[in-house]
Amino acid sequence: MEKITGKNNDIIKNVKKLLSSTKHRREQGLFVLEGARLVFDVLNSFYTVSCLLITQNAYEKYKTQADEIAEHCQRVFIISDDISEKLSDTKNPQGVFAICRMRNNADFRFIPNGRYIALDHIQDPGNLGTIVRTAEALGIDGVIVGGGCDMYNPKVLRAAMGSMLRMHIVQTDDLAQMLTGLKSKGVPVYASTPDSNAAPVTDIDFSAGGVCVIGNEANGVREEIKRICGSLVTIKMTGRAESLNASAAASILMWEMLR
Question: Residue 189 contacts by C-beta under 8 Å, 6 or more apart in sequence?
Answer without folding.
Answer: 179, 182, 183, 210, 211, 213, 228, 229, 230, 231
